[in-house]
Amino acid sequence: MGNDAGLRRFAGTVSLVTGASRGIGFAIAERIVAEGGEVVLTARTAEALTEAVEQLGPAASAVAGRADDADHRAEVFAHIARAHGRLDHLVNNTGINPVYGTLAALDVAAARKILEVNVLATLEWTRAALTAGLARSIVNVASVAGQGASPGIALYGVSKAAVINLTLQLADELAPGIRVNAVAPAVIKTDFARALFEGRESEVSAAYPLARLGVPADVAGPVAFLLSEDAAWITGQTITIDGGAGIGGLA
Ligand SMILES: NC(=O)c1ccc[n+]([C@@H]2O[C@H](COP(=O)([O-])OP(=O)(O)OC[C@H]3O[C@@H](n4cnc5c(N)ncnc54)[C@H](OP(=O)(O)O)[C@@H]3O)[C@@H](O)[C@H]2O)c1
Fold first, then answer.
1. Does the domain formed by 14-243 have CATH 3.30.470.20?
2. 156 is catalytic
3. Which end of the chain, N or C, is more open, meaning fewer C-beta atoms within 10 Å of its C-beta?
4. CA distances from 65 to 41, 62, 133 (A)
5. How far is it, in rounded angstroms, from Cα 28 to Cα 185?
């Protein structure tokens, strides 16, 4: 679980992690629980969420629904008020990429959906969390796709660039009370990224100085740090988590 130091940075706190039945969101929830926190998860599929909650134990609960559905968000915050009466941390982890191809060939309905889920829903979860009394910090899950050209998934990159800038805008607007940071991972081994590495993992890993692809726990550690008081004087930052891929050696 990556918590060998016996840290308890989330004791007495409640966190909401969206898109957390598997992958990066689940690993973040796992880390928060390992450090003594309570966590509320969301995702669309109720059965997968039930399994995730069973794995995490009594500190976890979940509400199923679509991240871009206002009624679902209202249900989540009603659950948090009822079950916990407080909210300390928000992790905007849900992100989608339903299309692959050039911008020239992009279907505009798909583009709209990507921006609705990845950008506008991130803002809406944040606004609703503030209304619900969010007390401490927010981490948004962006991507290295938002830090440069990302051929084939360009509009996804545009949406993640917007998440990075949204992080800056919110950090400015919500200081000093709430800190807002982001992470920008490269390829992490989850269902979401499977097409990018399946069947050719050693070939893809060769592009990474640290000589392997990322795993969800590689993201959960930095997210836990940014959420916690260890990052008390850090806001508006995006931490790149890329196994050194961005170093840019000339070899
Ligand atoms: N994996 C990577 O290489 C990588 C790299 C950079 C950034 N990221 C970002 O990391 C985040 C998590 O990705 P992941 O790789 O962990 O994906 P994943 O393993 O596919 O997990 C995605 C999670 O989000 C839920 N979800 C998907 N669409 C949703 C929606 N519209 N509303 C609510 N929940 C939804 C999924 O459950 P349901 O399907 O049941 O809803 C699942 O729990 C995303 O923002 C992604 O853009 C991933």
1. no
2. yes
3. C
4. 10, 10, 22
5. 14
Ligand 1 atom with least separation from CA of 19: 24
If you measure from the C-alpha of residue 251 to the centroid of ligand 1, how many angstroms do you get, rounded to a whole number? 34
Instruction: Give me ligand 1 centre to Cα 95, in Å.
Output: 5
pLDDT value at 196 more than 80: yes
Burial of 247 (0-12, 13-18, 19+ CB in 10 A): exposed
For the Cβ of 24 lying below 6 angstroms from any atom of ligand 1, the answer is: yes
Give, for 223, the enclosing helix (H) or strand (E). Answer: helix 216-227
The structure's pTM equals: 0.98
Residue spans per domain, the chain: 14-243
Cα gap 241→218, rounded to integer Å: 8
Which tens digit of pLDDT belongs to each residue from 72-128?
999 999 999 999 999 999 999 999 999 999 999 999 999 999 999 999 999 999 999
CA distances to 24, 52, 170 from 14, rounded to whole Å, are 18, 17, 21
Contact criterion met (CB below 8 Å) for 213 and 194: no
